[in-house]
Automatic annotation (TrEMBL), chain A:
Protein name: ATP-binding protein
Parts of the chain that traverse the membrane: none
GO molecular function, one term: ATP binding
Domain of life: Archaea
PROSITE patterns per record: ABC_TRANSPORTER_1, ABC_TRANSPORTER_2
Entry keyword annotation includes Membrane: yes
Automatic annotation (TrEMBL), chain B:
A single MF term (Gene Ontology): ABC-type transporter activity
Species assigned in the record: Methanocalculus chunghsingensis
Domain ABC transmembrane type-2: 20-246
Keywords assigned: Membrane, Transmembrane, Transmembrane helix
Pfam families assigned: ABC2_membrane
GO cellular component terms attached to this protein's record: ATP-binding cassette (ABC) transporter complex
Lineage: Archaea, Methanobacteriati, Methanobacteriota, Stenosarchaea group, Methanomicrobia
Membrane topology annotation: Multi-pass membrane protein
UniProt subcellular location: Membrane
Domain of life of the source: Archaea
InterPro entries: ABC2_TM (IPR013525), ABC2_TM_bact-type (IPR047817), ABC_2_transport (IPR000412), Nod_factor_ABC_transporter (IPR051784)
Name under which the protein is recorded: ABC transporter
Length: 316, 251
Protein backbone atom coordinates (compact mmCIF):
# COMPACT_ATOMS: atom_id res chain seq x y z
CA UNK A 1 0.00 0.00 0.00
CA UNK A 2 1.40 3.36 -0.97
CA UNK A 3 0.73 6.55 0.90
CA UNK A 4 -1.86 7.52 -1.64
CA UNK A 5 -3.91 4.50 -0.61
CA UNK A 6 -4.19 5.57 2.99
CA UNK A 7 -7.76 5.63 4.15
CA UNK A 8 -7.98 9.36 4.67
CA UNK A 9 -7.76 10.11 0.95
CA UNK A 10 -10.89 11.53 -0.59
CA UNK A 11 -12.50 9.56 -3.36
CA UNK A 12 -12.34 12.54 -5.70
CA UNK A 13 -10.49 15.74 -5.20
CA UNK A 14 -10.85 18.25 -8.04
CA UNK A 15 -9.03 21.56 -8.08
CA UNK A 16 -9.76 24.31 -10.61
CA UNK A 17 -10.68 21.83 -13.33
CA UNK A 18 -11.11 23.56 -16.64
CA UNK A 19 -11.94 22.54 -20.18
CA UNK A 20 -12.61 24.65 -23.23
CA UNK A 21 -13.71 23.66 -26.72
CA UNK A 22 -12.50 26.35 -29.10
CA UNK A 23 -14.47 29.33 -27.78
CA UNK A 24 -16.81 27.47 -25.41
CA UNK A 25 -15.77 27.22 -21.79
CA UNK A 26 -17.40 23.87 -20.99
CA UNK A 27 -15.99 23.56 -17.47
CA UNK A 28 -14.90 26.76 -15.82
CA UNK A 29 -12.40 26.16 -13.01
CA UNK A 30 -14.43 23.98 -10.71
CA UNK A 31 -13.23 22.56 -7.41
CA UNK A 32 -14.93 20.03 -5.19
CA UNK A 33 -14.31 17.01 -3.05
CA UNK A 34 -16.19 13.74 -2.93
CA UNK A 35 -15.71 11.89 0.34
CA UNK A 36 -15.44 8.16 0.62
CA UNK A 37 -18.75 6.39 0.95
CA UNK A 38 -21.02 9.17 -0.24
CA UNK A 39 -23.31 9.44 -3.23
CA UNK A 40 -22.39 12.72 -4.81
CA UNK A 41 -24.75 14.20 -7.35
CA UNK A 42 -23.77 16.52 -10.15
CA UNK A 43 -26.96 18.26 -11.13
CA UNK A 44 -27.41 20.69 -13.96
CA UNK A 45 -29.27 21.40 -17.19
CA UNK A 46 -28.11 20.19 -20.60
CA UNK A 47 -24.85 21.76 -21.65
CA UNK A 48 -23.88 22.67 -18.09
CA UNK A 49 -20.62 20.76 -18.33
CA UNK A 50 -21.50 17.58 -16.43
CA UNK A 51 -20.31 15.12 -19.05
CA UNK A 52 -17.13 17.06 -19.70
CA UNK A 53 -16.36 17.02 -15.97
CA UNK A 54 -17.07 13.31 -15.74
CA UNK A 55 -14.85 12.67 -18.75
CA UNK A 56 -11.96 14.55 -17.20
CA UNK A 57 -12.37 12.68 -13.92
CA UNK A 58 -12.42 9.30 -15.66
CA UNK A 59 -9.30 10.10 -17.67
CA UNK A 60 -11.07 10.15 -21.01
CA UNK A 61 -10.29 13.81 -21.63
CA UNK A 62 -7.32 15.86 -20.54
CA UNK A 63 -8.19 18.97 -18.57
CA UNK A 64 -6.90 22.26 -19.98
CA UNK A 65 -6.24 23.47 -16.49
CA UNK A 66 -6.38 22.37 -12.86
CA UNK A 67 -6.04 18.85 -11.60
CA UNK A 68 -8.01 15.96 -10.18
CA UNK A 69 -7.08 13.01 -8.03
CA UNK A 70 -8.92 9.73 -7.55
CA UNK A 71 -8.07 8.26 -4.14
CA UNK A 72 -4.95 10.41 -4.27
CA UNK A 73 -3.86 9.29 -7.75
CA UNK A 74 -3.55 12.17 -10.16
CA UNK A 75 -5.71 11.47 -13.18
CA UNK A 76 -3.22 12.96 -15.62
CA UNK A 77 0.03 11.70 -14.12
CA UNK A 78 -1.09 8.32 -12.77
CA UNK A 79 -4.08 7.56 -14.99
CA UNK A 80 -3.78 3.78 -14.82
CA UNK A 81 -3.81 3.70 -11.03
CA UNK A 82 -6.68 6.17 -10.88
CA UNK A 83 -8.73 4.31 -13.49
CA UNK A 84 -8.09 0.95 -11.83
CA UNK A 85 -10.09 2.10 -8.82
CA UNK A 86 -13.18 3.30 -10.63
CA UNK A 87 -16.03 1.88 -12.63
CA UNK A 88 -17.48 4.01 -15.39
CA UNK A 89 -20.92 4.25 -16.97
CA UNK A 90 -20.48 6.97 -19.61
CA UNK A 91 -23.39 8.98 -20.94
CA UNK A 92 -23.49 7.63 -24.46
CA UNK A 93 -21.59 4.40 -24.15
CA UNK A 94 -22.25 1.13 -25.76
CA UNK A 95 -21.18 -2.40 -25.11
CA UNK A 96 -19.70 -4.25 -28.10
CA UNK A 97 -22.80 -5.29 -30.00
CA UNK A 98 -21.15 -8.02 -32.08
CA UNK A 99 -20.33 -10.14 -29.06
CA UNK A 100 -22.44 -11.48 -26.21
CA UNK A 101 -23.15 -9.88 -22.86
CA UNK A 102 -20.94 -12.51 -21.26
CA UNK A 103 -18.04 -11.82 -23.62
CA UNK A 104 -18.33 -8.10 -22.92
CA UNK A 105 -18.05 -8.78 -19.21
CA UNK A 106 -15.08 -11.09 -19.66
CA UNK A 107 -13.36 -8.43 -21.75
CA UNK A 108 -13.79 -5.96 -18.90
CA UNK A 109 -12.43 -8.55 -16.49
CA UNK A 110 -9.29 -8.88 -18.59
CA UNK A 111 -8.89 -5.13 -19.05
CA UNK A 112 -9.08 -4.60 -15.30
CA UNK A 113 -6.86 -7.56 -14.48
CA UNK A 114 -9.56 -9.58 -12.69
CA UNK A 115 -8.64 -13.29 -12.33
CA UNK A 116 -10.80 -15.36 -14.67
CA UNK A 117 -12.61 -17.56 -12.15
CA UNK A 118 -13.45 -14.53 -10.03
CA UNK A 119 -14.61 -12.58 -13.10
CA UNK A 120 -16.94 -15.43 -14.04
CA UNK A 121 -18.41 -15.54 -10.57
CA UNK A 122 -18.90 -11.77 -10.49
CA UNK A 123 -20.43 -11.78 -13.96
CA UNK A 124 -22.99 -14.37 -12.91
CA UNK A 125 -23.91 -12.44 -9.78
CA UNK A 126 -24.21 -9.14 -11.59
CA UNK A 127 -26.17 -10.47 -14.54
CA UNK A 128 -28.57 -12.17 -12.17
CA UNK A 129 -29.02 -9.05 -10.06
CA UNK A 130 -29.63 -6.97 -13.17
CA UNK A 131 -32.05 -9.42 -14.76
CA UNK A 132 -29.85 -10.34 -17.72
CA UNK A 133 -28.71 -13.84 -16.86
CA UNK A 134 -30.97 -15.58 -19.34
CA UNK A 135 -29.65 -13.41 -22.15
CA UNK A 136 -26.00 -13.75 -21.22
CA UNK A 137 -24.96 -15.64 -24.36
CA UNK A 138 -26.91 -13.51 -26.81
CA UNK A 139 -25.31 -10.82 -28.87
CA UNK A 140 -25.84 -7.36 -27.42
CA UNK A 141 -27.19 -6.26 -30.80
CA UNK A 142 -30.72 -7.36 -29.92
CA UNK A 143 -30.82 -5.79 -26.46
CA UNK A 144 -33.22 -2.98 -25.61
CA UNK A 145 -31.84 0.33 -24.44
CA UNK A 146 -32.58 -0.54 -20.83
CA UNK A 147 -30.89 -3.91 -21.12
CA UNK A 148 -27.82 -2.33 -22.70
CA UNK A 149 -27.60 0.19 -19.89
CA UNK A 150 -27.90 -2.55 -17.29
CA UNK A 151 -25.13 -4.46 -19.05
CA UNK A 152 -22.92 -1.38 -19.06
CA UNK A 153 -23.50 -1.02 -15.35
CA UNK A 154 -22.55 -4.67 -14.86
CA UNK A 155 -19.41 -4.06 -16.94
CA UNK A 156 -18.52 -1.10 -14.75
CA UNK A 157 -18.95 -3.17 -11.60
CA UNK A 158 -17.13 -6.33 -12.61
CA UNK A 159 -13.89 -5.44 -10.87
CA UNK A 160 -15.68 -4.24 -7.72
CA UNK A 161 -14.63 -0.61 -8.01
CA UNK A 162 -14.50 1.53 -4.89
CA UNK A 163 -15.77 4.50 -6.87
CA UNK A 164 -18.45 4.43 -9.52
CA UNK A 165 -19.02 7.16 -12.10
CA UNK A 166 -22.40 7.34 -13.78
CA UNK A 167 -23.31 9.97 -16.35
CA UNK A 168 -27.08 10.32 -16.53
CA UNK A 169 -27.53 6.58 -16.01
CA UNK A 170 -31.31 6.50 -16.12
CA UNK A 171 -31.96 9.15 -18.72
CA UNK A 172 -34.48 7.89 -21.26
CA UNK A 173 -34.83 4.45 -19.70
CA UNK A 174 -37.93 2.38 -19.03
CA UNK A 175 -39.30 2.28 -15.50
CA UNK A 176 -38.14 -1.26 -14.80
CA UNK A 177 -34.54 -0.58 -15.76
CA UNK A 178 -34.50 2.69 -13.86
CA UNK A 179 -35.80 0.92 -10.80
CA UNK A 180 -33.25 -1.88 -11.04
CA UNK A 181 -30.40 0.55 -11.52
CA UNK A 182 -31.28 2.94 -8.70
CA UNK A 183 -31.91 -0.03 -6.42
CA UNK A 184 -28.50 -1.41 -7.22
CA UNK A 185 -26.82 1.96 -6.66
CA UNK A 186 -28.34 2.19 -3.19
CA UNK A 187 -27.23 -1.29 -2.32
CA UNK A 188 -23.71 -0.66 -3.62
CA UNK A 189 -23.49 2.47 -1.56
CA UNK A 190 -24.67 0.65 1.56
CA UNK A 191 -21.76 -1.71 1.02
CA UNK A 192 -19.30 1.14 0.85
CA UNK A 193 -19.03 2.11 -2.83
CA UNK A 194 -18.62 5.81 -3.42
CA UNK A 195 -20.81 7.07 -6.25
CA UNK A 196 -20.46 10.11 -8.50
CA UNK A 197 -23.63 10.61 -10.45
CA UNK A 198 -24.59 13.27 -12.95
CA UNK A 199 -28.20 14.01 -13.71
CA UNK A 200 -30.46 16.74 -14.94
CA UNK A 201 -33.26 15.26 -12.90
CA UNK A 202 -33.73 17.04 -9.61
CA UNK A 203 -35.94 14.29 -8.23
CA UNK A 204 -33.34 11.66 -8.92
CA UNK A 205 -30.65 13.72 -7.24
CA UNK A 206 -32.91 14.21 -4.25
CA UNK A 207 -33.78 10.56 -3.94
CA UNK A 208 -30.27 9.19 -4.26
CA UNK A 209 -27.62 11.64 -3.23
CA UNK A 210 -26.01 12.55 0.07
CA UNK A 211 -24.73 15.78 -1.39
CA UNK A 212 -25.52 17.56 -4.60
CA UNK A 213 -23.45 20.04 -6.57
CA UNK A 214 -25.49 22.25 -8.83
CA UNK A 215 -23.62 23.10 -11.98
CA UNK A 216 -24.58 25.72 -14.49
CA UNK A 217 -22.60 27.07 -17.42
CA UNK A 218 -19.50 25.19 -16.32
CA UNK A 219 -19.48 26.53 -12.78
CA UNK A 220 -20.60 25.06 -9.50
CA UNK A 221 -23.40 27.21 -8.17
CA UNK A 222 -23.77 25.48 -4.84
CA UNK A 223 -23.01 22.23 -3.08
CA UNK A 224 -25.55 21.19 -0.54
CA UNK A 225 -27.45 18.30 0.97
CA UNK A 226 -30.66 17.37 -0.83
CA UNK A 227 -32.65 18.29 2.28
CA UNK A 228 -31.51 21.87 2.06
CA UNK A 229 -31.98 21.78 -1.67
CA UNK A 230 -35.44 20.42 -1.24
CA UNK A 231 -36.35 23.11 1.20
CA UNK A 232 -35.27 25.68 -1.29
CA UNK A 233 -37.31 24.01 -3.97
CA UNK A 234 -40.42 23.51 -1.95
CA UNK A 235 -40.39 27.08 -0.92
CA UNK A 236 -41.45 28.04 -4.38
CA UNK A 237 -44.55 26.60 -5.95
CA UNK A 238 -46.55 27.83 -8.86
CA UNK A 239 -50.33 27.94 -9.00
CA UNK A 240 -52.23 28.56 -12.17
CA UNK A 241 -55.82 29.68 -12.02
CA UNK A 242 -58.34 31.08 -14.44
CA UNK A 243 -61.55 32.82 -13.47
CA UNK A 244 -64.67 33.57 -15.42
CA UNK A 245 -65.01 36.50 -15.82
CA UNK A 246 -61.28 37.08 -15.94
CA UNK A 247 -59.55 39.16 -13.28
CA UNK A 248 -56.36 41.14 -13.25
CA UNK A 249 -53.30 39.87 -11.43
CA UNK A 250 -53.26 42.86 -9.13
CA UNK A 251 -56.40 41.58 -7.38
CA UNK A 252 -54.46 38.65 -5.90
CA UNK A 253 -51.05 40.05 -5.22
CA UNK A 254 -51.89 41.37 -1.75
CA UNK A 255 -53.21 38.06 -0.42
CA UNK A 256 -51.38 36.18 2.31
CA UNK A 257 -48.89 33.57 1.10
CA UNK A 258 -48.82 34.91 -2.44
CA UNK A 259 -45.42 36.12 -3.55
CA UNK A 260 -46.10 37.22 -7.08
CA UNK A 261 -48.87 37.07 -9.62
CA UNK A 262 -48.91 37.78 -13.31
CA UNK A 263 -51.25 37.31 -16.22
CA UNK A 264 -50.48 34.82 -18.94
CA UNK A 265 -53.20 34.67 -21.58
CA UNK A 266 -56.47 33.91 -19.85
CA UNK A 267 -54.86 32.50 -16.74
CA UNK A 268 -53.12 33.98 -13.72
CA UNK A 269 -49.75 32.55 -12.71
CA UNK A 270 -49.06 32.81 -9.01
CA UNK A 271 -45.94 31.89 -7.11
CA UNK A 272 -46.11 31.02 -3.46
CA UNK A 273 -44.19 29.44 -0.63
CA UNK A 274 -47.39 28.33 1.05
CA UNK A 275 -49.61 26.44 -1.35
CA UNK A 276 -52.32 25.81 1.23
CA UNK A 277 -52.98 29.43 2.22
CA UNK A 278 -52.67 30.58 -1.34
CA UNK A 279 -55.34 28.18 -2.60
CA UNK A 280 -57.62 29.09 0.28
CA UNK A 281 -57.15 32.76 -0.50
CA UNK A 282 -57.86 32.19 -4.19
CA UNK A 283 -61.06 30.23 -3.62
CA UNK A 284 -62.28 32.70 -1.03
CA UNK A 285 -61.63 35.54 -3.45
CA UNK A 286 -63.54 33.70 -6.16
CA UNK A 287 -66.53 33.02 -3.92
CA UNK A 288 -66.66 36.62 -2.65
CA UNK A 289 -66.68 38.01 -6.16
CA UNK A 290 -68.98 35.40 -7.64
CA UNK A 291 -66.31 34.12 -10.01
CA UNK A 292 -66.39 30.75 -11.60
CA UNK A 293 -63.07 28.92 -11.21
CA UNK A 294 -62.51 27.35 -14.61
CA UNK A 295 -59.11 25.82 -13.88
CA UNK A 296 -56.83 25.57 -10.88
CA UNK A 297 -53.61 23.65 -10.67
CA UNK A 298 -50.36 23.59 -8.76
CA UNK A 299 -47.02 23.06 -10.44
CA UNK A 300 -43.84 21.78 -8.85
CA UNK A 301 -40.92 24.08 -9.41
CA UNK A 302 -38.88 23.51 -12.52
CA UNK A 303 -35.17 23.04 -12.34
CA UNK A 304 -34.72 26.55 -13.63
CA UNK A 305 -36.83 27.99 -10.85
CA UNK A 306 -34.91 25.97 -8.33
CA UNK A 307 -31.68 27.31 -9.75
CA UNK A 308 -32.86 30.86 -9.51
CA UNK A 309 -33.98 30.18 -6.01
CA UNK A 310 -30.76 28.53 -4.93
CA UNK A 311 -28.51 31.05 -6.49
CA UNK A 312 -30.55 33.96 -5.27
CA UNK A 313 -30.52 35.32 -8.79
CA UNK A 314 -34.18 36.32 -8.57
CA UNK A 315 -33.80 38.45 -5.47
CA UNK A 316 -31.25 40.70 -7.14
CA UNK B 1 -1.40 -6.54 -8.50
CA UNK B 2 0.27 -3.45 -9.89
CA UNK B 3 -1.86 -2.30 -12.82
CA UNK B 4 1.04 -0.30 -14.25
CA UNK B 5 3.45 -3.23 -14.49
CA UNK B 6 4.54 -4.26 -17.96
CA UNK B 7 3.26 -7.80 -17.54
CA UNK B 8 -0.16 -6.61 -16.43
CA UNK B 9 -0.39 -4.12 -19.31
CA UNK B 10 0.77 -6.80 -21.75
CA UNK B 11 -2.05 -9.07 -20.60
CA UNK B 12 -4.51 -6.26 -21.14
CA UNK B 13 -3.07 -5.55 -24.59
CA UNK B 14 -3.71 -9.17 -25.39
CA UNK B 15 -7.32 -8.78 -24.26
CA UNK B 16 -7.64 -5.93 -26.75
CA UNK B 17 -6.12 -8.14 -29.44
CA UNK B 18 -8.68 -10.84 -28.72
CA UNK B 19 -11.49 -8.30 -28.87
CA UNK B 20 -10.24 -6.92 -32.19
CA UNK B 21 -9.98 -10.35 -33.74
CA UNK B 22 -13.43 -11.32 -32.54
CA UNK B 23 -15.13 -8.16 -33.64
CA UNK B 24 -13.26 -6.36 -36.36
CA UNK B 25 -11.44 -9.07 -38.21
CA UNK B 26 -14.70 -10.92 -38.61
CA UNK B 27 -15.88 -8.05 -40.81
CA UNK B 28 -15.37 -7.79 -44.56
CA UNK B 29 -12.29 -5.64 -45.21
CA UNK B 30 -9.67 -8.20 -44.20
CA UNK B 31 -10.69 -10.70 -46.77
CA UNK B 32 -11.45 -8.11 -49.42
CA UNK B 33 -8.43 -5.87 -48.97
CA UNK B 34 -6.02 -8.46 -47.66
CA UNK B 35 -6.61 -11.41 -49.92
CA UNK B 36 -8.80 -10.68 -52.93
CA UNK B 37 -7.27 -7.36 -53.82
CA UNK B 38 -3.68 -8.65 -54.05
CA UNK B 39 -4.90 -11.75 -55.83
CA UNK B 40 -6.70 -9.71 -58.50
CA UNK B 41 -3.80 -7.30 -58.91
CA UNK B 42 -1.52 -10.26 -59.19
CA UNK B 43 -3.67 -12.04 -61.79
CA UNK B 44 -4.04 -8.89 -63.85
CA UNK B 45 -0.30 -8.37 -63.78
CA UNK B 46 0.57 -12.01 -64.44
CA UNK B 47 -1.78 -12.19 -67.42
CA UNK B 48 -0.33 -8.99 -68.87
CA UNK B 49 3.25 -10.24 -68.47
CA UNK B 50 3.21 -13.89 -69.30
CA UNK B 51 6.95 -14.14 -69.73
CA UNK B 52 7.70 -13.28 -66.07
CA UNK B 53 8.98 -16.18 -63.97
CA UNK B 54 6.64 -17.69 -61.39
CA UNK B 55 8.95 -17.11 -58.38
CA UNK B 56 9.08 -13.39 -59.24
CA UNK B 57 5.30 -13.18 -59.38
CA UNK B 58 4.79 -15.18 -56.21
CA UNK B 59 7.22 -13.15 -54.15
CA UNK B 60 5.38 -10.03 -55.32
CA UNK B 61 2.06 -11.58 -54.37
CA UNK B 62 3.39 -12.44 -50.92
CA UNK B 63 4.63 -8.89 -50.37
CA UNK B 64 1.29 -7.41 -51.43
CA UNK B 65 -0.73 -9.82 -49.33
CA UNK B 66 1.19 -9.11 -46.14
CA UNK B 67 1.11 -5.38 -46.82
CA UNK B 68 -2.60 -5.18 -47.59
CA UNK B 69 -3.67 -7.48 -44.78
CA UNK B 70 -1.64 -5.69 -42.14
CA UNK B 71 -3.09 -2.34 -43.20
CA UNK B 72 -6.63 -3.53 -43.92
CA UNK B 73 -8.32 -3.22 -40.54
CA UNK B 74 -5.93 -1.50 -38.15
CA UNK B 75 -6.58 1.99 -39.58
CA UNK B 76 -10.32 1.74 -39.03
CA UNK B 77 -10.55 0.14 -35.60
CA UNK B 78 -10.59 3.41 -33.69
CA UNK B 79 -13.02 5.19 -36.03
CA UNK B 80 -15.26 2.13 -35.81
CA UNK B 81 -15.10 2.14 -32.04
CA UNK B 82 -15.83 5.84 -31.90
CA UNK B 83 -18.80 5.43 -34.21
CA UNK B 84 -20.16 2.48 -32.27
CA UNK B 85 -19.64 4.43 -29.03
CA UNK B 86 -17.43 1.82 -27.46
CA UNK B 87 -14.29 3.93 -27.49
CA UNK B 88 -15.05 6.05 -24.44
CA UNK B 89 -15.61 2.97 -22.33
CA UNK B 90 -12.40 1.45 -23.62
CA UNK B 91 -10.20 4.42 -22.85
CA UNK B 92 -11.74 4.74 -19.40
CA UNK B 93 -10.15 1.34 -18.69
CA UNK B 94 -6.82 1.21 -16.86
CA UNK B 95 -4.70 0.74 -19.97
CA UNK B 96 -2.15 3.12 -21.43
CA UNK B 97 -2.18 4.35 -25.00
CA UNK B 98 0.84 2.11 -25.61
CA UNK B 99 -1.19 -0.88 -24.46
CA UNK B 100 -4.11 0.07 -26.65
CA UNK B 101 -1.91 0.50 -29.72
CA UNK B 102 0.02 -2.66 -28.95
CA UNK B 103 -3.22 -4.61 -28.70
CA UNK B 104 -4.54 -3.31 -32.02
CA UNK B 105 -1.19 -3.82 -33.66
CA UNK B 106 -0.83 -7.39 -32.48
CA UNK B 107 -4.23 -8.32 -33.91
CA UNK B 108 -3.23 -6.86 -37.24
CA UNK B 109 0.13 -8.64 -37.01
CA UNK B 110 -1.44 -12.03 -36.39
CA UNK B 111 -3.68 -11.66 -39.40
CA UNK B 112 -0.89 -10.56 -41.68
CA UNK B 113 1.29 -13.49 -40.64
CA UNK B 114 -1.64 -15.88 -40.96
CA UNK B 115 -2.66 -14.73 -44.42
CA UNK B 116 0.96 -14.84 -45.63
CA UNK B 117 0.60 -18.60 -45.57
CA UNK B 118 -1.88 -18.44 -48.47
CA UNK B 119 0.52 -17.18 -51.20
CA UNK B 120 3.28 -19.41 -49.85
CA UNK B 121 0.99 -22.43 -50.16
CA UNK B 122 0.00 -21.36 -53.66
CA UNK B 123 3.70 -21.26 -54.44
CA UNK B 124 4.35 -24.71 -53.05
CA UNK B 125 1.42 -26.05 -55.04
CA UNK B 126 2.85 -24.73 -58.31
CA UNK B 127 6.33 -25.97 -57.38
CA UNK B 128 7.92 -22.78 -56.04
CA UNK B 129 9.43 -23.75 -52.69
CA UNK B 130 11.22 -20.94 -50.76
CA UNK B 131 15.01 -21.31 -50.80
CA UNK B 132 15.42 -19.87 -47.30
CA UNK B 133 12.22 -20.54 -45.37
CA UNK B 134 13.47 -19.45 -41.94
CA UNK B 135 14.78 -16.16 -43.24
CA UNK B 136 11.49 -15.67 -45.05
CA UNK B 137 9.57 -16.32 -41.83
CA UNK B 138 11.68 -13.72 -40.04
CA UNK B 139 11.05 -11.27 -42.87
CA UNK B 140 7.29 -11.88 -42.75
CA UNK B 141 7.23 -11.34 -39.00
CA UNK B 142 9.17 -8.10 -39.12
CA UNK B 143 7.22 -6.81 -42.12
CA UNK B 144 3.86 -7.66 -40.54
CA UNK B 145 4.89 -5.72 -37.48
CA UNK B 146 6.07 -2.78 -39.58
CA UNK B 147 2.95 -2.62 -41.78
CA UNK B 148 0.64 -3.02 -38.78
CA UNK B 149 2.29 -0.02 -37.18
CA UNK B 150 1.86 1.87 -40.45
CA UNK B 151 -1.83 0.91 -40.44
CA UNK B 152 -2.27 2.38 -36.99
CA UNK B 153 -0.44 5.49 -37.99
CA UNK B 154 -2.89 5.90 -40.86
CA UNK B 155 -5.80 5.99 -38.44
CA UNK B 156 -4.57 8.98 -36.46
CA UNK B 157 -6.61 11.63 -38.30
CA UNK B 158 -9.47 12.26 -35.86
CA UNK B 159 -12.30 11.40 -38.19
CA UNK B 160 -14.96 8.98 -37.08
CA UNK B 161 -16.06 8.04 -40.56
CA UNK B 162 -14.37 4.72 -41.27
CA UNK B 163 -14.80 5.07 -45.03
CA UNK B 164 -12.83 8.33 -45.01
CA UNK B 165 -9.91 6.58 -43.38
CA UNK B 166 -10.20 3.67 -45.78
CA UNK B 167 -10.08 6.04 -48.72
CA UNK B 168 -7.16 7.95 -47.30
CA UNK B 169 -5.18 4.82 -46.63
CA UNK B 170 -5.97 3.32 -50.04
CA UNK B 171 -4.69 6.52 -51.59
CA UNK B 172 -1.37 5.86 -49.92
CA UNK B 173 -1.30 2.09 -50.19
CA UNK B 174 -1.90 1.58 -53.90
CA UNK B 175 0.85 3.85 -55.20
CA UNK B 176 3.26 2.10 -52.82
CA UNK B 177 2.65 -1.16 -54.64
CA UNK B 178 3.99 0.31 -57.87
CA UNK B 179 7.15 1.85 -56.50
CA UNK B 180 8.16 -0.96 -54.19
CA UNK B 181 9.45 -3.47 -56.68
CA UNK B 182 6.38 -5.68 -56.48
CA UNK B 183 5.67 -5.63 -60.21
CA UNK B 184 8.76 -3.91 -61.57
CA UNK B 185 12.16 -4.56 -60.04
CA UNK B 186 13.57 -1.44 -58.37
CA UNK B 187 16.56 -1.43 -60.74
CA UNK B 188 14.26 -0.95 -63.71
CA UNK B 189 12.45 2.05 -62.23
CA UNK B 190 13.31 5.57 -63.42
CA UNK B 191 15.51 7.52 -61.03
CA UNK B 192 12.60 9.33 -59.33
CA UNK B 193 10.91 5.97 -58.83
CA UNK B 194 14.04 4.56 -57.25
CA UNK B 195 14.19 7.46 -54.81
CA UNK B 196 10.58 6.83 -53.84
CA UNK B 197 11.25 3.11 -53.56
CA UNK B 198 13.88 3.75 -50.93
CA UNK B 199 11.27 5.61 -48.86
CA UNK B 200 8.78 2.76 -48.99
CA UNK B 201 9.00 0.07 -46.31
CA UNK B 202 7.35 -2.34 -48.72
CA UNK B 203 10.43 -2.22 -50.97
CA UNK B 204 12.55 -3.91 -48.32
CA UNK B 205 10.11 -6.68 -47.63
CA UNK B 206 9.63 -7.34 -51.34
CA UNK B 207 13.38 -7.62 -51.62
CA UNK B 208 13.57 -10.06 -48.71
CA UNK B 209 10.77 -12.14 -50.22
CA UNK B 210 12.49 -12.18 -53.58
CA UNK B 211 15.77 -13.25 -52.08
CA UNK B 212 14.22 -16.01 -50.00
CA UNK B 213 12.09 -17.35 -52.83
CA UNK B 214 14.29 -16.90 -55.92
CA UNK B 215 17.71 -15.92 -54.61
CA UNK B 216 18.02 -12.46 -56.18
CA UNK B 217 18.08 -9.15 -54.34
CA UNK B 218 18.50 -5.41 -54.95
CA UNK B 219 19.75 -4.46 -51.48
CA UNK B 220 21.93 -6.34 -48.99
CA UNK B 221 19.79 -8.43 -46.65
CA UNK B 222 21.05 -6.60 -43.58
CA UNK B 223 19.91 -3.30 -45.10
CA UNK B 224 16.47 -4.75 -45.75
CA UNK B 225 16.03 -5.97 -42.19
CA UNK B 226 17.49 -2.83 -40.66
CA UNK B 227 15.25 -0.59 -42.77
CA UNK B 228 12.13 -2.53 -41.77
CA UNK B 229 13.12 -2.37 -38.11
CA UNK B 230 13.72 1.38 -38.25
CA UNK B 231 10.42 1.98 -40.06
CA UNK B 232 8.64 -0.18 -37.48
CA UNK B 233 9.98 1.79 -34.56
CA UNK B 234 9.24 5.15 -36.16
CA UNK B 235 5.69 4.15 -37.16
CA UNK B 236 4.88 2.65 -33.76
CA UNK B 237 6.20 5.59 -31.76
CA UNK B 238 4.47 8.10 -33.99
CA UNK B 239 1.20 6.20 -33.79
CA UNK B 240 1.30 6.17 -30.00
CA UNK B 241 2.17 9.84 -29.88
CA UNK B 242 -0.50 10.97 -32.32
CA UNK B 243 -3.25 8.73 -30.97
CA UNK B 244 -2.67 10.01 -27.46
CA UNK B 245 -3.27 13.46 -28.84
CA UNK B 246 -6.29 12.77 -31.04
CA UNK B 247 -8.20 10.07 -29.20
CA UNK B 248 -10.23 12.40 -26.99
CA UNK B 249 -11.34 14.31 -30.06
CA UNK B 250 -13.15 11.23 -31.30
CA UNK B 251 -15.59 11.04 -28.42
N1 LIG C 1 -16.37 17.34 -27.77
C1 LIG C 1 -16.90 18.58 -27.72
N2 LIG C 1 -16.60 19.50 -28.66
C2 LIG C 1 -17.11 20.74 -28.61
N3 LIG C 1 -17.93 21.18 -27.66
C3 LIG C 1 -18.28 20.33 -26.69
C4 LIG C 1 -17.79 18.98 -26.67
N4 LIG C 1 -18.30 18.36 -25.57
C5 LIG C 1 -19.06 19.27 -24.95
N5 LIG C 1 -19.06 20.45 -25.62
C6 LIG C 1 -19.77 21.67 -25.19
O1 LIG C 1 -19.45 21.91 -23.84
C7 LIG C 1 -20.59 22.30 -23.10
C8 LIG C 1 -20.82 21.34 -21.97
O2 LIG C 1 -21.21 20.08 -22.49
P1 LIG C 1 -21.47 18.81 -21.60
O3 LIG C 1 -20.33 18.62 -20.68
O4 LIG C 1 -21.80 17.70 -22.51
O5 LIG C 1 -22.76 19.21 -20.76
P2 LIG C 1 -23.83 18.32 -20.00
O6 LIG C 1 -23.28 16.94 -19.87
O7 LIG C 1 -24.00 18.99 -18.69
O8 LIG C 1 -25.07 18.35 -20.80
C9 LIG C 1 -21.72 22.36 -24.10
O9 LIG C 1 -21.85 23.71 -24.51
C10 LIG C 1 -21.27 21.49 -25.23
O10 LIG C 1 -21.81 21.96 -26.44
MG1 LIG D 1 -24.13 15.22 -20.48
Amino acid sequence: MSEADSYQEDAIHATDLRKTFSDIVAVDSISFTVRRGEIFGFLGPNGAGKTTTARMLTGVMQPDGGSAAIFGHDIVHAPVRAKQRCGVVPETANAYTDISAWQNLMLMGELYGVPKHYAEERAKTLLTALGLIERKDQKVQGFSKGMKQRLILAMALLHKPELLFLDEPTSGLDVQSTHLITGMLRELNRNGTTIFLTTHNMEEANRLCDRVAIIQKGRIVTIDSPERLKMAIERLHTIEVSFDPARSADDLITFPGIESARREGDKLVITTEDVDSAIHAITTFGREHNLKIEMLRTLSPTLDEAFLRLTGADSA
Amino acid sequence: MNPESIIEQAKRAFAITKKDIRIYYAKGPVVIFGLFMPLFLFLAFALGNRNLPMPFLLSGLLAMTVFFTATAVSPVIQPWEAQARTLERLIACPVTMKTLIAGDMFASFLFAVGIAIVPIMIGVLVGVVPLYPLLLAAGIILASFCFSALGLLLSTPATNVPSNIMMLSSLLKFPLIFISGVFIPVEQLPFAGQVLAICSPLTYFTDIARYCIMGTNSFPLSVNFAALAVFSIIFALLAIRLHARTVSRRI
